[in-house]
Amino acid sequence: MKITIAGLLISLVQLGSIYAQDRKMDHFITNLMGKMTVEEKIGQLNLVTGGEAVTGSAVSTGVESKIKEGNIGGIFSMSSPAKIRQAQELAVKHSRLGIPIIFGMDVIHGYKTMFPIPLGLAATWDMELIRESARIAAVEATADGLNWTFSPMVDISRDPRWGRISEGSGEDTYLSSRIATEMVKGYQGANLDAHNTLMACVKHFALYGAAEGGRDYHTTDMSLHRMYNEYLPPYKAAIDAGAGTVMTSFNDINGVPATANRWLMTDLLRKQWGFKGMVVTDYTAINELIDHGLGDLQTVSALSLKAGVHMDMVGEGFLSTLKKSLEEGKVTRAEIDEACRLILEAKYKLGLFDDPFRYCSDERAKNNILTKDHLAKAREAAAKSFVLLKNDNNLLPLKKQGTVAVIGPLANSGANMPGTWSVSADLANTQSLVDGMKDALGNKVKIMTHLGSNLVADAAYQERATMFGRTIPRDERPEQEIISEAIRVAEDADVIVAALGEGSEMSGESSSRTDLNIPATQRRLLEALLKTGKPVVLVLFTGRPLTLTWEDKHVPAILNVWFGGTETGKAVADVLFGDITPSGKLPATFPQNVGQIPLYYSAKNTGRPLAEGAWFQKFRSNYLDVTNEPLYPFGYGLSYTTFEYGDIKLDKKSIAAGQHIQADITVTNTGNYDGEEIVQLYIRDLVGSVTRPVKELKAFEKISLKKGESRTVSFTISEDDLKFYNQELKFTAEPGDFTLFIGPDSKNTKEIDFKLL
Ligand code: BGC
């Protein structure tokens, strides 16, 4: 980087202004805290729920009187300018010091205009689009009175049994880190005190996605080496991007639950990473430390505060015990002051002390939500998130003519389209797949539809899988009767679209599964549909990688649409009928069966690796009954067109510390459609002081090529891209040999070697 005198002067002026602003804020808060009683300070640490979305057994009570008494610092899951104005008025006009409240919400993948679930958004690999989705979410949520979102969720997960894999960006460290950065920037914008930006909260700190057996809230036991190299970087990326707040995770980490883990919250987060913002617990996470076995409520509340946690979500452990702990010398006044200061700072940065009602505009609520532009972006994002898994004989795209039968339990449920964690979505007014398709296609295509089968055969399971209003109608007649009726509808069609998979609440929080097949009753429907001899396209709804071995073998075309948000139906029509060529690529490996889990591309080699392409070798690392290969690898996704990759060209064979190497590859659109391709670059460090993964994603570029067009994509790799945390947890690059791979997915790559001198 070249440093100019003018550049240096500008940086110094900027630094000076940040310093002046910080001093102003410090002065203001010191002054305010000087007037606060210890009770009022503890009151600021209390975050209660407004009751619109509840994820635990506890619900906040007596909110109004607590606000007046100064016993509430923040409220979440309450929205609309009217309600928020009312609560804010109680705080600023009726509490002794008039300290405004911060208003939070789980704005995870859109506010009212829902974008695809985060795993789907990750499949776009489109950083601009992802940032834009967060910006739109911020515009809408702030228009409805909110100023703080519990997002981004950046927990890496390599276990699709874990339902919350749907809420993150998948298995990869690099991709997740890039997305974390974009989400924070999209929410927070350039100016946190603008009336249309939200404060971000990176969660769940930390390692929540590595819960044992994919069971939610479960234990994580992990080496520091793996943490630093694979699981922690996305949190750090969000913090480096300026995330204002951090949320603790529910899980135990190497013997100390995150919410009481001083090493995590103080040594790592503050001392090593320099995080300066506020840490909030997850829902009743302090109280849950009792069940983790760390002591009674007073003990665990003190432990949590001392660990570096500042705000207590819903459980009121801080509110009910910290004063006593202070009197008994179990916590210090300085610890309470620090927590209170950081919460007040967050409010200050949001501009709430200047104008506590800055987010309460009826006009903005009326004009800035579900706008035409927002919906158009959501439709584009949905279409770009879809991953074409199979397309035999170019069955897709379909022609806009004739009759299409859309059959399956996901065909007619608008409430399931937004996907999990869409608490603010208007479920009743979300179009179903069929309605959206009809809307997009007009009268060019005749659409017929039928339920085809229940979501799952067992009524009690279906109830668990369709909670929070995500209903899918049930038909209690014998399965064969329902299927036969559906087949009669299908027989009148030219093409069958099978709308199958998971209901949206089959993934997400507390939705772990051990069987990742399409539910058996739906599989039987699919078999019957295939037997008609008509072309069948499987439009697959899912919040996680499923095991699709049977479907891959028998169904000619599979389009994985995750849960695409408000505009799902229209976007599915856009892609099925070729207005948009699919370009999504998997952000997580699809295994052949559950027994292979965890299965991820960036694994270690072992001392007995299976020979490339081999099925089984005795005394090698493999299974007797299934190959080591995934069904669909990380980064995989087809297009209607085809892309050919040339050979990789390097501008030099070796680089010294501080130098760059340039890798060029020419990609040609050799098919019959214009299309977008995500060109992926992986690196393997062949020899190290510690073992290194067989491949790691280090760069990618999404390009758009007209049919017949070629483009040379250039990547610049620097010494920094070769760094990793060594045994002493020093982030360093080691001289030696490397292989660089480029290709359309993690498996199918060209390669070339180079050296770091
Ligand atoms: C979830 C968090 C969420 C919180 C508040 C918890 O159950 O784990 O992700 O932000 O509830 O709704």
From TrEMBL:
An example Gene Ontology biological process: glucan catabolic process
Any one Gene Ontology cellular component term annotated for this protein: periplasmic space
Gene Ontology terms for molecular function: beta-glucosidase activity
Domain Fibronectin type III-like, chain residue ranges per copy: 677-746
Location relative to the cell: Periplasm
Family per similarity comment: Belongs to the glycosyl hydrolase 3 family.
UniProt EC number: 3.2.1.21
Enzyme category, top tier: hydrolase
Catalysed transformations (reactions): Hydrolysis of terminal, non-reducing beta-D-glucosyl residues with release of beta-D-glucose
PANTHER family, per the entry: LYSOSOMAL BETA GLUCOSIDASE, PERIPLASMIC BETA-GLUCOSIDASE-RELATED
Primary location: periplasm
Keyword Hydrolase in annotation: yes
InterPro entries from the UniProt entry: Cellulose_Degrad_GH3 (IPR051915), Fn3-like (IPR026891), GH (IPR017853), Glyco_hydro_3_AS (IPR019800), Glyco_hydro_3_C (IPR002772), Glyco_hydro_3_C_sf (IPR036881), Glyco_hydro_3_N (IPR001764), Glyco_hydro_3_N_sf (IPR036962)
Protein's name in the database: Periplasmic beta-glucosidase
Gene3D superfamilies reported for this sequence: Glycoside hydrolase family 3 C-terminal domain, Glycoside hydrolase, family 3, N-terminal domain, Immunoglobulins
Record key words, sorted: Glycosidase, Hydrolase, Periplasm, Signal
Superkingdom: Bacteria
